[in-house]
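Reopening this ticket.

The earlier resolution said the output was attached, but the attachment link was broken on my side. Pasting everything inline this time so it's all in one place.
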Amino acid sequence: MKKEQNGHSASKSQDQKKEKIKQNNSSAKRATSNSSKKSATGIGEKTKADLLEIAKRAGVTGRHAMTKDELINAINKKID
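Inline output:
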């Protein structure tokens, strides 16, 4: 029974994280290509440190080894 409770709260926590990321990057969903995602969201203008924080909240693994463009793509995939 504890597993169900933990699984439920973990799922709720993940849902909350996803919703927060969606709210922070709401215009990203409207963009269709990588270049338009960058310009539509302004995410391409963020620093790598900012992108790392967003990626962390989104649950992107391997984020520290990624380039700025890779971070942008990974973040956009997580919120789509």
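Reporter confirms the inline version is readable. The chain has four helices and no strands. Confidence is low (pLDDT under 50) at residues 1-5, 27-40.
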